[in-house]
Amino acid sequence: MSDNVLSTAGKENIANDTGAVMFACPKCGFEFIIRSSGERKNVTQYTCPKCGFTGPN
Ligand SMILES: [Zn+2]
C-alpha cells in the first residue's frame, strides 16, 4: 500500500475509505478538500489551506 492520502481536517488516511470525498474548495476552487467518511458523518469542519474557508457550514 503506497497511497497515503490524508483528509484535510483530521489527517486521516482515506486511501481505503470508500466513503471519502474530494472536491475543490467551494470558495477559491484552488485547493482540494478531502473528507473521510467519518468526518462527513461527524460533520467535522475543514479549513481550506489556501483561503481559510471553513466548511461544511
Ligand atoms: Zn479555498
Description:
It is a single chain. The protein has 57 residues and is mainly β. It has one domain (1-57). Helix content is 9%, strand content 21%. It is built from one helix and four strands; from the N terminus they run ββαββ. The protein has one helix spanning 37-41; strands at 21-24, 32-35, 46-47, 54-55. It has a two-stranded antiparallel sheet with strand order 1-2. The protein has a two-stranded antiparallel sheet with strand order 3-4. β3 (46-47) and β4 (54-55) form a beta hairpin. It is globular, with a radius of gyration of 11 Å. The N and C termini lie far apart (34 Å). The model has no long low-confidence stretch (mean pLDDT 93). The structure holds zinc ion (ZN). Zinc ion (ZN) binds at residues 25, 27-28, 31, 48, 50-51, 53.
Secondary structure elements and their pairing?
Layout: E1 21-24, E2 32-35, H1 37-41, E3 46-47, E4 54-55
Antiparallel strand pairs: 1-2, 3-4
The site of zinc ion (ZN) has 8 residues, from loops.
